[in-house]
Amino acid sequence: MTDAFVQQSLQASPPPATAADVMRPPLTTVEQQGHVAAAAYLMKHAGATALMVLDAQTDQPIGIITEADIAHAVADGKDVNSVRISQLMTIRPTVIKTTTNVRDAAEVMASGHFRHLPVVGDAGLVGIVDITDVCRALLEPDVSGTPESVAGHST
Question: Comparing C-alpha atoms, which of 16, 19, 15 is closest to residue 97?
Fold first, then answer.
């Protein structure tokens, strides 16, 4: 064994990425009384695959609507211009904390068959992670956003 190999082996591995490292803020949100067509329009123009649903009076998150929800409605022959978001959304979705490591988030997603997880912090809802964010973090050794890790990746 070379000294360089031994030195490299003794270095502590970086801590696993957390939801805070990979989440996408700011969130695109909708109100539950909006039409599904409006949600689809917002998703397209925001580049989002899910929207958090807010209560109109409290402005607090009460659900989530995803591309899959809309696709199922269309496949079922529903009119997205008349169906309300409240009729399709998932109420009280499973959430993770900003400190949840990415591997644990992946386990939650796999066991619950979820593609999106809202992220909560001390102040409430702070972001969302999707399956792509989690997979990318598990496949890339460093997602911390440090100049060293970013310099090696082309966009």
Answer: 19
